[in-house]
Amino acid sequence: MAPMKKHVFAAIAVFAFGAWAAQGQVVSSNTQNRPIVKTDAVQYLFPAQVSVLAGRPTAVTLHFLIKQGLHINSHTPSDEYLIPTAFSIPDGAGVRLDAATYPSGTTFTLPVDPTVKLNVYTGEFVIQARIVAAAGNHLVQGKLRYQACDNNACMPPTTITVPIDVIAK
After folding, report:
1. CA 20, CA 23: separation in Å to the nearest integer?
2. pLDDT per position as a tens digit, 99-146
């Protein structure tokens, strides 16, 4: 083989090997725009089932957990353009939400702008719901709407299902 052909062949082999080895290291520029949360930022913990007196307002304590490193706006956020956390029960569930009492949020200061004070929930929090149920067994698909943020950005508002088996006697 001529010396020039050997160099071309070697260069092609090195280039091909380099491209093959680097393919696992290529990072899409699109990954920087993806939210850091791959699962729900808020998880409903319990109760899975409650027993209530039919037709009578009954207190139910709903427990939630916010993913570490995130916060969500409280039910009474510090500015009107912020999305409040809100619990609801859809119409036609055989159970209605009579009232909900939310915890007070904590003050959170953004590291990038210490003048901005937010009212947020972090870690575990509870909502005191007062429900009224018709007699029977109702598989309620309650909803919790919230907006989760980290120290740099907020994810789009989202709603998770809050499944509760309500037994009303």
Report:
1. 5
2. 999 999 999 998 888 888 999 999 999 999 999 999 999 999 999 999
Number of domains comprising the chain: 1
Q: What is the pTM of this model?
A: 0.75
Q: Domain for residue 5, yes or no?
A: no
CATH code of the domain in which 102 resides: 2.60.40.1250
Residue 16 lies in a domain: no
Give tens-digit pLDDT for 13-67: 333 333 333 333 333 334 444 444 456 899 999 999 999 999 999 999 999 999 9
End-to-end CA, the chain? 92
Contacts of residue 26, Cβ cutoff 8 Å, sequence gap at least 6: none
